[in-house]
Amino acid sequence: KEIAIVKIGGNESAGQDPSPFVNVDTTTIPGLERAKSLKLGTSNLADAIVTPFIFEANELWSDATSTSKHRGRLFAVFRHPVDRAVSMFTYLQYADWEPTYDPKLAEMSIQDYARSPRVENNWMTRYLTNHMEGELQEEDLQAAMDIIRKKFLVGLLSKKEETMERFEKFFKWKYFINPTNQEKCRSTLLMGGSNSNQNKMKIKPQPGSEEYDLLAWQNLFDIRLYEYIEQLFKEQAAFVESIKDGYRSEGSSCCKCEEIPCQPAGIKDWRRKEKEAGVKAAL
User: Fold this and answer.
1) Under a CB-based contact definition with an 8 Å cutoff, are residues 258 and 179 in contact?
2) Per-residue pLDDT for the chain (283 aa), expressed as one digit of tens each?
3) What's the DSSP call for residue 213?
4) What does the H/E/C string look like for 31-98?
């Protein structure tokens, strides 16, 4: 099947428009392999690619030349490792759809979890260096910092609004579906998130408490990495300092009604084909 944009979701009666997605699944290895075979990386169809497999995803641009405009830039939102560990523990207590679900976790306290083999151990440092097992060394932390500095535009969960504003400016993201609805959706997501469960939230352990110290001990490298990311977040503000806040809305309009000059080339081509086929574009 050819690579293409498909429209998913939406609720016309509620004024919600369908969202455009490329018909590939980049959250699995087989999906990434298929995306590569369909030349997703050079297709001009996707503004952003979401995947947990950053090393494998690099292959999406393996056929691009050194002078090609088709180059990827990693971006991610980071949170404090102790907060991340508490969130993961909470999630695993009730996520019975996950392959790693263990009903015994529901009976554990945070202290029990922090002492168990199930607790995260410097997960981010391990993930970035592809060193998932064995003892970490100082050079692993330095390698993770180097990867973050060279490859990532970093965001902080503790600064969601500033992070999103920066991403929008850096990647030149603008509204081109339905600006009014998109702004409402943006505000809702920034205030509450898309998959958070407020009813199951745990009280965050405070520094100096037994729970905090146990989880911090398991994440000593990740805490240092996070502190480095916090500093990098301040430094990277220079990337977009010449662009005014609210860039996402500048020149935006509803492309149900008119042609949008700033929309991605792939989106524009898809919309043109729909018009030729006599189908009203949802974008």
Assistant:
1) no
2) 789 999 888 777 776 778 889 999 999 999 999 999 999 988 889 989 999 999 999 999 887 665 567 678 899 999 999 999 999 999 888 888 888 888 888 899 999 999 999 999 999 999 999 999 999 999 999 999 999 999 999 999 999 999 999 999 999 998 877 888 889 889 988 987 655 555 566 678 999 999 999 999 999 999 999 999 999 999 999 999 999 999 998 877 665 544 444 455 455 554 555 445 444 333 3
3) H
4) HHHHHHHCCHHHCCCCCCCCCCCHHHHHHHHCCCCCCCCCCCCEEEEECCHHHHHHHHHHHHHHCCCC
79-92 b/e with 16+ CB inside 10 Å = b?
Answer: bbbbebbbbbbbbb
- The tokens describing 3, both together, are 């690579």
